[in-house]
From TrEMBL:
UniProt similarity note: Belongs to the bacterial solute-binding protein 5 family.
Regions annotated as coiled coil: none
Biological source species: Streptomyces rimosus subsp. rimosus (strain ATCC 10970 / DSM 40260 / JCM 4667 / NRRL 2234)
InterPro entries documented for this protein: Peptide/Ni-bd, SBP_5, SBP_5_dom
Domain of life: Bacteria
PROSITE patterns in the record: PROKAR_LIPOPROTEIN
Lineage: Bacteria, Bacillati, Actinomycetota, Actinomycetes, Kitasatosporales
Cellular compartments annotated: Cell envelope
Record field: transmembrane: none
Region forming the signal peptide: 1-29
Protein name: Peptide ABC transporter substrate-binding protein
GO biological process, one term: peptide transport
PANTHER family attached to this UniProt entry: PERIPLASMIC BINDING COMPONENT OF ABC TRANSPORTER (PTHR30290), PERIPLASMIC OLIGOPEPTIDE-BINDING PROTEIN-RELATED (PTHR30290:SF10)
Keyword list, A-Z: Signal, Transport
């Protein structure tokens, strides 16, 4: 790295070392398991299982679950919301890690593997028998059809909707019997893509409890949304008491603490061993660290800066396990912002901004090796090149070649117009190159990342103003918008990626993220060629389809790629077992259990 990186490393390491000494040197860690005993000295395996107990898991900094309805809407798409929903209302298919990718063939699936026929235009699915709702009513094909009818008639409300995909690509939903249904598709699809990226959404919902009188789906959906917006009533509303998953709600506070207890009617193969699971929110990573250090969390996380001292935790009866995600991380750009939009729509300018993000140094120094550079729209290792490595000189040359000149240290447009050497459409003469970033709060690493990016841009003559807000606020603000809508003036750039910005389904294609009009295309980026390449990933099982899409989209820089961190550096009590850190961030606390040392009580 150049001199700038060297200067950055010195004070940053000193700051983190001081913080580490303060955090690790001021208290002794004590355990509080199911019987309030000391943490065992067992390793990650062995021991005699104890039925019962309470396990407390820390939620990410400034993250508070606030949506229970298994059909997500804009602003409520955080991974922890999905994780809780899936424990109450499991989808038909669950993705699990397999080699370097994911598989949809899980023993937790509520259905057998789909059968494709008629040239991949028909899909037949058989539900596994024996599953029941918590009131004893069997889970049937009609419960899946109920979910489908809701998204079909209210697709604009559903955050998972992309024009042309679900439910548009299903011409007919046929219930064959109580445990079998068939989908007639509008064309042939790549079976791996359709199973991994479409069927993963199919979720049985309790029609007998939520729609006993066969009302109009739009009316039912509106009623369910009304209930879903009453956060203070999640634990008491009778609507949410009919569940099919291994857990049911005991408490759900407005501050985001969720307490789950076993659904005694659950008939799946993975029945809970614990009496209770508590998901505990924290305002910052430091506050979580203090509670973890005092033994108030059984499954928590540490700042990446503490990884070098992981031996200290191991001596105290904990194990360290970074939770890697099937994800990418980026700063989203609002192409429809009244003033920033014309700037961000210039491909040369986005490329220049990307050249100013020193991903390798940020990953190594700020994230202490617990992050990897994001090269494009697919997870690390899926793209073989970095099209825009850190290069301030190239960034400045790109801007100068398009009419930007420094005045008093600030870049301003000196050659307005749409020519090849001019600033671009709707950028007036004298406009400063100034942008504002809305970033999530609660993480020292995220704050340092943004300051590092700001510093690099300042040196290039670009002003980057940073505002920090809690994650839910950022997610609720950085939503797709039209130029005339007030919310479109509320943000220019947004970052919500402390635990990764986007977690993919099985196939890392871009239909939900970078296609024109896609539900999670927060910045309203639109590119006809990208749309065409995305379609090819949906229709063709040729591996080159995904590669071509990834390379082209990486080159266009629809967002600013930033280092992708591990979801968290997990710290788990040695006597808490059965934890499988799924790359999609789903949880399976029904598999968790405590053990006692050597088969004896503690």
């Amino acid at each position: 790295m150049g001199p700038r990186s060297t200067r950055r490393r010195g004070p940053l390491h000193a700051l983190l070392a001081a913080l580490l000494a303060l955090l690790l040197g001021t208290a002794t860690l004590t355990g509080c398991g199911p019987e309030n005993g000391a943490v065992t000295s067992l390793g990650a395996t062995g021991g005699t299982r104890v039925e019962g107990g309470t396990a407390t898991m820390a939620l990410p900094p400034a993250a508070t679950p606030n949506w229970i309805f298994p059909i997500g809407t804009a602003g409520y798409l955080a991974s922890y919301n999905n994780a809780v929903q899936d424990l109450l209302y499991p989808p038909l298919y669950t993705a699990e890690k397999k080699g370097a990718g994911l598989t949809m063939d899980s023993p937790r699936n509520l259905a057998g593997q789909p059968r494709y026929s008629d040239g991949n235009t028909t899909v037949t699915i058989a539900l596994k028998k024996g599953y029941r709702w918590s009131d004893g009513t069997p889970v049937t094909s009609r419960d899946v059809e109920f979910w489908y009818d809701l998204i079909k008639h209210d697709k604009q409300e559903w955050a998972g909707y992309s024009p042309g995909l679900l439910p548009d690509n299903v011409k007919k939903f046929e219930v064959l019997d109580d445990h079998t249904f068939r989908l007639r598709l509008d064309r042939a699809y790549n079976p791996a893509w359709f199973t991994g990226n479409q069927l993963q959404d199919f979720t049985p919902l309790p029609k007998h409890a939520w729609d006993p009188h066969d009302e109009n789906p739009k009316k039912v959906f509106a009623r369910l949304l009304e209930h879903a917006r009453k956060l203070s009533e999640f634990a008491t509303d009778p609507l949410w008491k009919t569940v099919s998953g291994p857990w049911r709600i005991e408490k759900w506070t407005t501050s985001g603490q969720v307490s789950l207890i076993p659904n005694q009617q659950y008939s799946g193969p993975d029945k809970p061993h614990l009496d209770r699971v508590v998901l505990k929110p924290f305002t910052t990573a430091d506050s979580e660290f203090n509670v973890l250090r005092a033994g108030g969390v059984d499954y928590g996380y540490i700042p990446p800066s503490v990884m070098a001292r992981s031996a200290s935790f191991k001596k105290l009866g904990y194990r360290i396990d970074p939770w890697e995600g099937w994800a990418i991380t980026y700063i989203v750009l609002n192409f429809n912002h009244p003033t920033a939009g014309p700037l961000l729509r210039q491909t040369y300018l986005r490329r220049a901004l990307q050249h100013l993000i020193d991903q390798r140094t940020i990953a190594d120094v700020v994230w202490h090796g617990s992050a990897e550079p994001t090269r494009g729209p697919v997870p690390a290792g899926q793209l073989d090149r970095d099209p825009f490595p850190y290069d301030p000189e190239k960034a400045e040359a790109l801007l100068a070649a398009h009419g930007w000149q420094r005045t008093g240290g600030q870049l301003r447009c000196a050659r307005p117009g749409t020519g090849p050497d001019e600033c671009g459409k709707d950028i007036p003469a004298g406009q400063p190159l100034r942008l504002e970033l809305l970033s999530q709060s609660g993480s020292t690493e995220t704050s340092n990342t943004m300051q590092e990016i700001k510093s690099a841009m300042d040196k290039a003559g670009i002003t980057l103003d940073i505002r920090q807000q809690p994650l839910n606020t950022v997610l609720g603000t950085t939503v797709p918008c039209k130029k005339t809508e007030p919310v479109c003036s509320a943000w220019q750039l947004g970052f919500f990626g402390t635990q990764g910005s986007w977690y993919f389904p099985t196939v890392a294609s871009g239909e939900s993220l970078f296609a024109t009009g896609a539900p999670s295309n927060m910045g309203n980026w639109s590119d006809p060629k990208a749309d065409e390449l995305i379609k090819k990933t949906e229709y063709s099982d040729d591996p080159s389809a995904l590669r071509d899409y990834a390379r082209y989209t990486a080159d266009q820089v629809p967002v600013l790629w930033t280092p992708n961190p591990a979801y968290q550096v997990s710290v788990i009590r040695n006597d808490l077992r059965g934890i499988d850190q799924n790359p999609t961030l789903s949880l399976a606390p029904q598999d968790w259990y405590f053990v006692k040392k050597g088969g004896a009580g503690r």
